[in-house]
Amino acid sequence: MDAAAGKQPRIVIVGAGFGGLSAAKALRRASAKVTLIDRTNYHLFQPLLYQVATAELAPSEIAVPLRSILRDQENAEILLGTVNDVDLQARTVILQELGQKVSYDYLVVATGAQHSYFGHDEWERYAPGLKTVEEATAIRRRILLAFERAETETDPEERRRLLTFVIVGGGPTGVEMAGAIAGLAKRILVRDFRHIDPRSARIILIEGQDRLLSTYPENLSMAADRSLERLGVEVWLSKMVETCDEDGVVAGGQRIEARTIIWGAGNAASPAAQWLNADRDRAGRVKVAPDLSLPGHSEVFVIGDTALVTMDDGSPVPGVAPAAKQQGEYVAKVISAKLAGHPAPEPFRYRNLGNLATIGRSAAIADFGWLRISGFFAWVLWGLVHIYFLIGFRNRFAVAAKWLWAYFTVDRGARLIIGAQEPSSRSAPPPS
Amino acid sequence: MDAAAGKQPRIVIVGAGFGGLSAAKALRRASAKVTLIDRTNYHLFQPLLYQVATAELAPSEIAVPLRSILRDQENAEILLGTVNDVDLQARTVILQELGQKVSYDYLVVATGAQHSYFGHDEWERYAPGLKTVEEATAIRRRILLAFERAETETDPEERRRLLTFVIVGGGPTGVEMAGAIAGLAKRILVRDFRHIDPRSARIILIEGQDRLLSTYPENLSMAADRSLERLGVEVWLSKMVETCDEDGVVAGGQRIEARTIIWGAGNAASPAAQWLNADRDRAGRVKVAPDLSLPGHSEVFVIGDTALVTMDDGSPVPGVAPAAKQQGEYVAKVISAKLAGHPAPEPFRYRNLGNLATIGRSAAIADFGWLRISGFFAWVLWGLVHIYFLIGFRNRFAVAAKWLWAYFTVDRGARLIIGAQEPSSRSAPPPS
Predict the structure, then answer these.
(1) Number of domains in chain A
(2) What does the pLDDT look like over B289-319, one tens digit per residue?
(3) Among A151, A194, A423, whose Cβ lies nearest the Cβ of B128?
(4) Which of A8, B38, B85, B432 has a Cα-to-Cα distance from A388 of 20 to 30 A?
(5) Cβ neighbours of B397 in A, within 8 Å
(6) Range of the domain at B134
(7) Does B267 touch chain A (CB under 8 A)?
(8) Strand B101-103 vs strand B106-109: parallel, antiparallel, or unpaired?
(9) Would the ipTM clear 0.85, i.e. be above it?
C-alpha cells in the first residue's frame, strides 16, 4: 500500500459521508487516482437514521454500498479501513489496521462529527447517540424492549420507568426522534399489548436553550413545539441535563426516572484537527482557509462537519447534508483546477437551499428563507425532498412505498429486536 | 406471572417458528388463553435466511413482528423470554429471566433445531451455522469482509485464503448457500473491486454422503450437482470434515485453507427432550405418541423439528416448514377437541406437499412425488411458492419486487457490513 503510487497523482478522501462521497464523484473526470477510505462499506443517508431507530425503515433502505455507487468510476477505488492519523510531512494517511499507510498528493478530510456529552463521556452508556447504523439498531432494540419488559413487569413503579423515554437535545435529531417515538407509542403499538397501554408512555424532550430548533426562525420553533405537544410529547426548554445514570436523568434540578435515554445534543467534530495539528474551535472543527484548505497546506482540505467555515455574516455554515455536498463539489473543483494548471476558483460560498424537519405523522416545518411553512404541506415536501436525495433508484422506490404504506395503514414493518442475543447461541441457553 | 390464571384454561406454546405460530393461530376460536413464548419478537421465514446471509434480502423482509401477526387474536398473548426448563408435575414453564414461571393446562413445545457439530462444538466459532438473523448477518459480514480484505491484501497466499469459501453440508441450506455465494462472487461483485477478480473465488461444498440433497430423489441430486458445477462450485462428496480451525478445514484427509467456513450440516433438536425427561433419538428429537403428545402426559405436545414423528413406512417426517405447520394445526385440533369434550381426532398424518430447493439464479429443483423437475421452471415455481408463504402482504410485495429487480439488473442491495464495530465508538478510534 506504500508510496509508489505510479505517475498519476493520488487524491485520498477520508470519509464517505455527504462531503467525501460528493468530492469523489465530482472528481470522476480528473486524471488522478481517487482513493475513498471509510470504515463502513456503505454511504449512509443520515437524515433518515432516526427512522431506523424508531422501526420505520430498515438499515438497507438508507444505506447504499459504496462499491456499487462508484462501480463505473474507473479512477476511483475504495478502501475499507479506519484512519488513525495523518503524517503531513510524509503526506501519508495512517490506518488503524496494522501498519497500513496510504500516501497522497491531495487529501480531503471529511470525517464528520459525533455527539458531544459536554465532558461526560461516561453518560454515553446510558444515553446512546444516533450517528451510525449500529447505534440506530441499538436504540431501536432499547425502545422496543422497554415496551416488552413493561408488558410483563408487575411493579408499577418499574413499569412507569420502562414507559418513560427521555430525549436530550432539541435540534432536528431530537425533535424527529421525539415525534417518531410518540407515533410508535400512541398509534403503532396501541393494539399490540395485553397488559399495558402503550399510549400511557411518557416522552420528554429536553433542550438547554429557550426554544427548539434554535437554528430555525422563531415561528417555526413554535410550530414544532405545538406539533410535539399535540403528539403528547412533553417539551422541557431551558433545562440542562446535570446527571445521567441507568435509572434516569436529572435536568433543571428535576429527576426523571427512565429506562430509555437518547442523546441528540451537542456536536463534536471527529479528531481530525488533532491529526492535522490544526487550529480549531470549541467543537473541534478545523478552521480552514477560504478555499477550504488547511492553512499552510494547500494540498489538504477539510470539509463538512469537520470544518469550521464562516459565512459573510460571520456565522458558521451549518452542519447539514447540503453544506457538506457543496463543499465536496467545491474542493473537487479546486483540486481539478490545480491538476490542470488552471487558476483557482472563487472562495467557497454556501448556498442555503432551505431547512426541513419533520415532527411525526403529517407535520413538518420548512424554512427556505423566502418561504416558511409548517404542517401537512411541509411534511409532504419533506418526504419528496428526502426521497429525491436518497441515492439509488431502488432505495428511493422502497422508501416511498414503505412510507405510503405506513401512512395509509398505521403499521411499522421494521419492528424487529435484533442482536439482543449473541450470534452464537451454542453455549447459551436453548432457544425457546 | 404465577398460577391464578383465572378460570379459562391456559395453553402455553414455546417457540414461534412455523409449528408454534400455526398452533397459536389455529387456536384462535378456542375458549382458552393462548400464551406464545419466544426469545425473539418476530416470526422468521427461515427458508430464506440464506438470502440474508448472502446479501440478497434484508432481515426485515423475512421477519414479521409476532405482535402484529397476532394483534387481532384476542385470546392470544405474547411473551418475550427464553425457556429454560419445564416442571411437568407443577405444570409450569420456567423462564431464564429471573424467577419467572408460567403455568399451563396444555403445553406445546416447538423449539426447533440447531445445527450439529457432531460433538465438536468448538468448531462453531470458525464455522458458524445459519439458524438465526444474528447468525445470518454475521455470515454476511464475514463473506463481504473477506472480499474487502482480499482487495487490500498483498500476500498472494493470504489473498487466496480470503477468497476461498467452504460450506459444510450438502442439504438444502448448504446447496442454496453455495449457489448464492457463487452468484455473489461470479456476477454481483465482478466490477466492484480494482485489485482482485471476485470471479477467482473458490467455493467448495463438502458433503459426507455420496450425493447432495439426500432426502430428494437421486436424479434431482444429480441436477443440483450439475447446476452447482456450472456456477463454478466444487462439490466434494463422501468427504467428512475432520478438523476446523481459523485457517481452514481438513476434509477427507485434504486440507483447504479458507478464511470463511459456513456450517450447514447435521441437525440437533433443541434441549426440550431434557426438559421433558423424554425418550429421544440420536438427534435429540422427542419420541411422541401418535397424537404428538408426550407419552404419559396427554397435556403436553411436541411438534416440528423438536419431535420425532414416523410415517407409515417407518421413516421420520422431514424437518421442513410444511411438516411443522401441519403439526401445529393438528395439535390445535387435538387441544380444541379436549376443551370442547369432543372425541379425539385421528392420529397425525404428514401430507407431503413437495420439496423445493434453489441453486443460484434461474435454477432450482422441485419434487412433488408425481412431478420431479429441475431448471428454470422449477426456479420460477420456487419463487412463487416462497413468496406465497411469506407472512404479511408487504413483505411478499417487497421480496417479489427485490427479486425481480435483482434478476433484471444483477445487483444486490443489502450488501452492508453492519456490526463490525461496536455500537459505542466513543472510546474506540475516531471514525474515518
Answers:
(1) 2
(2) 999 999 999 999 999 999 999 988 888 998 8
(3) A423
(4) B432
(5) 401
(6) 121-265
(7) no
(8) unpaired
(9) no
